[in-house]
Specification:
Elements: E1 5-10, H1 19-28, E2 54-61, E3 67-74, H2 83-87, E4 93-95, E5 101-103, H3 113-117, E6 124-129, E7 135-140, H4 146-149, H5 156-160, E8 166-170, H6 171-185, E9 193-195, E10 205-209, H7 226-243, H8 245-260
Parallel strand pairs: 1-10
Antiparallel strand pairs: 1-8, 2-3, 4-5, 6-7, 9-10
């Protein structure tokens, strides 16, 4: 049985320094992504193809009429039941030996189904240029620094966090640590909770939040879209059996587009 590892994000310890963002850019050699100044402390609206984690700043009014900043390290959640893995027609989105979700760039064809179905709105497409000057698209997101994990190192963002707000290790240990920390902050944050949504069978990046998820821009009960389950468990296997892999790639695109266009009617949530 594969041991699952997780990153615990304890927002009650975060001081908003953004070191995790800088370290992520440096380690993964991600290009600069300038954004227009919007009069906010937050540098980017959300994660993007070239910005794999974003520190969010939320102005929050306390119950006694006071004011405080709420910070959140936002990145790929690495769902245990990942919609992006279910809908990928090329098996480019896959689970790693660490229980995280990564992209095989050699297989990715830039179809965008992962973007459309991510319940957290994290996966994005980037435009690249091949050696012949032809443009193509690929799905991009946080990899949990799988290259570092394979060498026995921690993810870059965890390594640089000076507040111990980001912690990485065996998932069972991280859950126990989250529960221990939750008990300690309940007096200060009565609404504090552990965010490890069961609708996606838990996530490998999970949170200790000081307030309810929606306050931090997170969906209260994210789920794998019905269209993704239909595609992975029924349409794709049946089509491959009847038509062969090559023909299915064409027909499957048509089927999945029809399914995904109905996603909004099914209540899919694409907010972070």
């Amino acid at each position: 049985m594969t041991t699952k590892y997780s990153k615990l994000v304890d927002v009650t310890r975060c001081d908003g320094c953004r070191a995790c963002m800088v370290m992520c850019k440096n380690w993964n050699d991600l290009p600069v992504e300038p954004e227009e100044f919007k009069g906010s402390y937050q540098s980017h609206d959300k994660c993007g193809a070239n910005t794999w984690n974003v520190l969010t700043f939320t102005e929050h009014e306390t119950e006694n009429g006071g004011f405080e900043w709420l910070f959140r390290h936002s990145a790929c959640m690495h769902c245990t039941d990942a919609a992006c893995v279910k809908v990928c027609p090329e098996d480019a989105m896959h689970y790693t030996e660490f229980g995280t979700v990564n992209t095989n760039y050699d297989k990715c064809v830039g179809c965008g189904y992962c973007v459309q179905n991510c319940p957290f709105g994290i996966v994005q497409l980037t435009t690249l240029v091949d050696e012949k000057g032809k443009e193509y698209e690929q799905a991009q997101k946080c990899t949990m620094c799988v290259d570092r994990l394979q060498e026995g190192m921690k993810p870059a963002c965890v390594e640089v966090c000076h507040m111990d707000a980001l912690v990485y290790g065996d998932k069972a240990d991280m859950v126990a640590l989250a529960e221990e920390r939750l008990a300690k902050v309940k007096d200060r944050y009565p609404n504090a909770n552990i965010y490890n949504p069961i609708g996606v069978d838990g996530t490998q990046t999970f949170y200790l939040l000081a307030d309810k998820p929606s306050v931090y821009g997170l969906p209260e009960n994210p789920k794998v879209p019905t269209s993704a389950t239909v595609w992975k468990d029924y349409a794709q296997p049946l089509g491959k059996a009847m038509l062969g892999v090559t023909t299915m790639a064409v027909i499957g695109g048509f089927i999945s587009n029809k399914l995904f266009n109905k996603q909004g009617e099914e209540g899919g949530n694409h907010d972070e």
